[in-house]
Amino acid sequence: MNSSKSKTIVFGHRGYPAKFAENSMEGFRNAVVNGAEGVEFDVHLTKDGIPVVMHDERVDRTTDGTGYIKDFTLKRLRQLHLSNGEPVPTLQELFELLENRDIQINLEFKTGIIHYHGIENTVLSLAQLYHFIHPIIYSSFDYVTLKNCQEIDPNQIYCYLTDEEVVNSAKLVKDNHFAGIHPGKLLPTRESVTERIWTVDDPQIAKKYFQEHVAGIFTNNYPLMIKLRDQIQGKG
Questions:
Q1: What is the CA 87 to chain-centroid distance, rounded?
Q2: Is the alpha carbon torsion for 50, 51, 53, 58 positive or negative?
Q3: pTM of the prediction?
Q4: Residue 160, Cβ neighbours under 10 Å: how many?
């Protein structure tokens, strides 16, 4: 159950990967210009401590290079190319695009496998330099990362990412002072819990979530899902 019957927010998962290279500035620009309601992206640190946007810990799948992000300086990393020819975006570049835009932002700390030293303070400090219309939603599969963030700045929005069954999601959220939970599927609960579900590309599954008025979904094809959502929930 979610907190209200308000409209489900559709987030472009890694931008718009159904059409553009995932986590590319081209994909994010498309989302901003063409009315996406939210964008989701993943953040790592380079060898010299610069936050960059990519999903995997390694560059192999999405660039023409090989190796771990943590082993690249920013200068070396920027010499690699995504499938569309662009370099790997820095978080600063993406923040500059998203600043003052009426678009929701979900920033995932990719620290479940590699916990980059100081990533929490680096990212939170950088975000303070920009003005966003909506507060950033920070999420992570890594519980320690979220607790570190809360110690640095308890006033931000932190949500726990999970691909596991959570018996009592309302208790988990309340006990840890999280703003919500981001599961891989709808979690059964009798209490009001903010759930944003990933990654929803099947229209039949999406239809169910829209009927439940979940708080949000993450999808690789945001235009398709917005159209479906409006058919079910209306455009108002």
A1: 20
A2: positive
A3: 0.97
A4: 21
Residue type, 104: Q
Closest to 119 in 3D by CA, of 24, 52, 25: 52
Amino acid letter, residue 37: E
Q: CA Rg, the chain, in Å?
A: 17
Q: How far apart are CA 175 and CA 159, in angstroms?
A: 13
User: What gap in Å lies between CA 87 and CA 96, rounded to an integer?
Assistant: 16
Strand 51-53 and strand 38-45: pairing?
A: antiparallel
Identify residue 48 by its one-letter amino acid code.
Answer: D
Handedness of CA 56, 68, 71, 116 (dihedral sign): positive
Strands of 163-207, DSSP E: 180-183, 196-197
Condensed to tens digits (0 to 9), the pLDDT of residues 163-212 reads: 999 989 999 999 999 999 999 999 988 889 999 999 999 999 999 999 99
Q: Which of 89-103, 138-152, 181-195, 215-229 has the lowest mean pLDDT?
A: 181-195
Per the listing, tokens 């939603």 go with 137
65-101 burial code (b ≥16 CB/10 A, e <16): beeebeebebeebbebebeeebbbbbbeebbebbeeb
Instruction: Report residue 188 CA to chain centroid gap.
Output: 22
Q: 3-state class of 63 per DSSP?
A: strand
